[in-house]
Amino acid sequence: MEKENKPEIKRLLSLDALRGFDMFWIMGGGGIFTALAALTGWPVLQWWASQLKHVPWHGFKFEDMIFPLFLFIAGISFPFSMAKRYHGPENRRALYVHVIKRGLILVLLGIICNNGIHFNNFANMRYGSVLGRIGLAWMFGALIFMNSGLKFRITWFWGILVGYWLLLLSFPAHDLGATDPYSMEGSLTGYIDRLLLPGRLYRKVHDPEGILSTLPAISTALLGMLTGQFVMSNYLGDKPLKKVCYMALAAIGFILLGKLWDFTFPINKNLWSSSFVCFVGGLSLLLFTLFYLVIDVWNCKRWTTFFVVIGMNSITIYLAPRIISFSQAAKFLFGGLIELYPANWTSLLDSIAYVAVAWTFLYILYRKKIFLKI
Question: What pTM was estimated for this model as a whole?
Fold first, then answer.
């Protein structure tokens, strides 16, 4: 019997660059622009600096997009990964093992990232985490994607969002005396976290990476997977600009729908509200479309190296600062030089030095082809 040839799946450079762009803000990019705004006083920079802080509850700023954008990107990657790994029924079990293992490892890493490694204070540990949310939402999204066709994937996407909205609207929590079903104290998500989530909650009465709000995050992952499926498909394969236009129109549609839904179900990252999924999903799709157009369609790639180096080791740069003191290394290497500048430059130069050290660390790994993959 002839061995089945695996199809050659082209890696999307735009996806690596976009992932790196997303992680840039986590690894210190936000500090650079905040310091630059304070130093120059330029209105456009001050506005951008204001976007680099989370909103307290309802509403949206760019900072609220960083996390769901990463989950959306992970979703886009899955159809490509699935095409590489799944070549007939004999590989199906292996793919299931990979998906579930990856999801659970991310949950475990999230717990360690939150708390360090301790063995005597389980009651006060925080179990909800960014990595855990990514792991579970991506895992369940992947299982849905693997076991359904396009129509059912779309049905799952909208069914989860509408069902989540109706759950919160129909069953507000009154244990803390609140009446607003979309408030921190009155939402069903917070109530379930208080009731079932062990350990401490990030906001005492609510955890933004809690149990119930993982449901709509599955839709964020699914939206990425549907996008990846569309990009991979042969549909409009000879007309990439038309494919880009379709993605851009879909992105605008999601943004508008999210804003309309905001009137009845507020855009809220802490709740991962259905309007938030649509609005931020649209923005994420629009950003991916731009990167895809410039890098993969127009073939403008030279500028991408900075972001690709970050994007190829995104989990590494998220975890590494918990173990490695990049700030101490930056102070050791550049502290004497920074002291030569006026005091009002210190914050900006400290931030640039930190990013330079962290990026150099990633670049060495990149050159050695060392990548942390889960």
Answer: 0.93
